[in-house]
Amino acid sequence: MPIRLTPQPTFRDRLADTDRPLVGMWVCTGSALNAEICAGSGLDWILIDGEHGPNTLDTIVPQLQAIAAYPATPLVRAPFGEPVIIKQLLDIGAQNLIVPMVNTPQDAAAAVSAVRYPPHGIRGVGSALARASRWNRYEDYLANADSTVSLTVQIETAQAVENAAEIAGTDGVHALFIGPSDLAASMGLLGRQGHPDVVAAVESTIRTAKELGVPVGVNAFDPAMARRYVEAGADFVAVAADVALLARASEKLADEWITGENAPTRASY
């Protein structure tokens, strides 16, 4: 007899079943080992980045498998909102998708359509071949597939901020995720995520989402900004990335162990 399995709770389930902001981080290296290390950290969610990291379908699968052994919820960011890419990510078992650069309600509706089977969407049907259904070991996967998927769309341009209410109100969008870096760039403030105008746009979007009852998160590696956005009502926050942690920690080692010309000489290690 084949084993009958049950899909894991989605990110939207996690958001609905908590009384505190969920804290997560990015994994961008393409390494399943790094993903597993981060998944065992005690953080609530781990985001595998397919947009800016060197991740492909072949590297995302083992990362999902590694994270599955831990309580952390895995999310996967698509490189862009292209239906074929979204279909492939869903089929390899990415239950929790983040779609970047959603600027209009039409963009949001297109993302929703891409994650749903007909007649409600355009997702291609290949569940018997796919890890998403555990090769048809999930009972009635096709009928219940929509309940196994969580769709988060990114608000990361001035245009998206203007359209935030309509985007959040799109049926099938389960959460918003604000990207201050691209938002700052779209406002002519490249690299200035802490500029008052950018912060005001982020907090405006948080207010809009809260008014509509839609979960909203934000990317904020600066601890002070992360706390500010949590106090403003953010439901989830990304506070670090594996590559950034490694870069800063290795720099700290260099600062501590490699002395400059005028630095005091150490007698021993």
From TrEMBL:
Belongs to the HpcH/HpaI aldolase family. One of its GO terms (molecular function) is aldehyde-lyase activity. Keywords: Lyase, Metal-binding. The keyword Lyase applies. This is 2,4-dihydroxyhept-2-enedioate aldolase. InterPro entries: Aldolase/citrate-lyase_domain (IPR005000), HpcH-HpaI_aldolase (IPR050251), Pyrv/PenolPyrv_kinase-like_dom (IPR015813), Pyrv_kinase-like_dom_sf (IPR040442). It holds the Pfam family HpcH_HpaI. SUPFAM superfamilies: Phosphoenolpyruvate/pyruvate domain. Residues 23-248 form the HpcH/HpaI aldolase/citrate lyase domain. GO terms for cellular component: cytoplasm. It comes from Paramicrobacterium humi. The keyword Transport does not apply.
